[in-house]
Amino acid sequence: AVDAILVSACLMGINCKHNGENNLNEKIIKLCGKYKLIPVCPEQLGGFPTPRPKAEIVCEDLAKGVLKVVRENGEDVTKYFENGAEEVLKIANLMNIKKAVLKEKSPSCGVYKIYDGSFSGKLIDGSGVTTKLLKENGIEVFNEYALEKFL
Ligand code: SF4
């Protein structure tokens, strides 16, 4: 059987980004013949509409690993991000998926980098809410710059 891989839906050209656009990545589309790519957008699955206001992760207590996700106006939207992550994990488990290619820098999908919570475009080391949950559950997560591993 062909392996199934979870992919951030925006990387496959789905207009699920916060601004209603996408992050189409032609290299990922080329993987379609080799793998069964399953597009998921944790933020839509978590209950957000599209378009939606931008959100960033703020670390409440880094030592304890407590994270909060907020909008620029300070509104706490953590629950939506957690719900979305749970739904993506559910899909992975249902389909016995062990690998994911997710969009770097997103507060849901970021793999190695996220914005620092100041809405000033500054990046820090860290991963998105969905990436974290998938990794905690034994799923290998790659960003869109690591596709050579799949070719
Ligand atoms: Fe793309 Fe992930 Fe953001 Fe959805 S949550 S738009 S899949 S980066």
Overall description:
The longest helix is centred in the middle third of the chain and has 17 residues, at 78-94. The chain has 151 residues and is of the alpha/beta class. The chain has helices spanning 26-30, 42-45, 78-94, 129-136; strands at residues 4-8, 36-40, 55-61, 66-71, 99-102, 113-115, 123-125, 140-143. It has a domain at 4-51 and 79-111 and 127-150. Strands 2-1-5-8 form a 4-stranded parallel sheet, with helices on one face. Strands 3-4 form a two-stranded antiparallel sheet. The protein has a two-stranded antiparallel ribbon with strand order 6-7. The mean pLDDT is 95. The protein starts with a strand and ends in an 8-residue tail after the last strand. The structure holds iron/sulfur cluster (SF4). The site of iron/sulfur cluster has 12 residues, from helix 2. Pfam families: 2-thiour_desulf (PF04463).
Write the layout of secondary structure elements.
Blueprint: E1 4-8, H1 26-30, E2 36-40, H2 42-45, E3 55-61, E4 66-71, H3 78-94, E5 99-102, E6 113-115, E7 123-125, H4 129-136, E8 140-143
Parallel strand pairs: 1-2, 1-5, 5-8
Antiparallel strand pairs: 3-4, 6-7
Helix pairs in contact: 3-4
The structure holds iron/sulfur cluster.
Order of helices and strands: EHEHEEHEEEHE
* Ligand inventory: iron/sulfur cluster
Strands, count? 8
Mean pLDDT: 95
Helical proportion, percent range: 10-25%
Question: What would you call the structural class?
Answer: alpha/beta
Give the DSSP E fraction (strand runs of 2 or more residues).
Answer: 15-25%
Strand arrangement in the largest pleated sheet: 2-1-5-8
Number of helices: 4
What ranges have pLDDT less than 50 throughout 5 or more consecutive residues? Answer: none
Distance from N terminus to C terminus (CA atoms, Å) equals 17 Å
- Shape summary: globular
Rg calculated over all Cα atoms:
15 Å
Largest sheet: 4 strands, parallel
